[in-house]
Amino acid sequence: MGVAYTESDYQAMSGKVGLEIRELPASTPLEKSIVEEGSHEVSETFSPAEMTAAINKNTWRYFPFVNVQIRVNADNSIEASGLVVVDRLLKYAQALGATAEEVQMGIDAAKLPNTTFPFYVKGKGEVVDNQVSGNFLSAEVGRLPVPAGILSDIQGRIVGAVEAKLVNNPSISIKEARLENGSAKFVGTLPNVEYVVK
Questions:
Q1: Domain count, the chain
Q2: Ranges of the chain whose pLDDT falls below 70
Q3: Considering the domain boundaries, does residue 1 fall inside one?
Q4: What confidence tens digit (pLDDT) does each residue in 164-178 have?
Q5: CA gap 31, 16 in Å, rounded
């Protein structure tokens, strides 16, 4: 997609979100491998390069997305592409509160390969008062289009997971998050500190 980032993009993003990352011991249990603490208000606009930098610099051991690029288009749609590391995906979802059975059902429903694979997704959406709205316009797994029925099911699961995370996490609250003018606007609260197993 042609979205590149530099260390200065990452530093700009870090300064805007005001999040301190601290390392947890490697022996920390999976369900406690990422913990957020405190909160502060944030009202910022993020460029595609800044968002791309933040995702690619994520140090949490179970974060499954690598070589990611994010682009916000003139029609306020967003595109993302990259690679999914499947052996991290199950642990990622479990650490965020899903059961192993739920994750496996999602993997089976989406017919995900059992190896690292490329992904692409395009959609539109916004969050207002922690309520997520929007839809996927298209998606590809391993360069193959995801059928509309499966895409609709996955969309529902993702919206539900995001809303559950917002309800159950006192450190994060979104008053407004939307795409405009080639960037993403965020108004809400974010954690002061994130503890992660690296």
A1: 1
A2: 110
A3: no
A4: 888 888 999 999 999
A5: 28
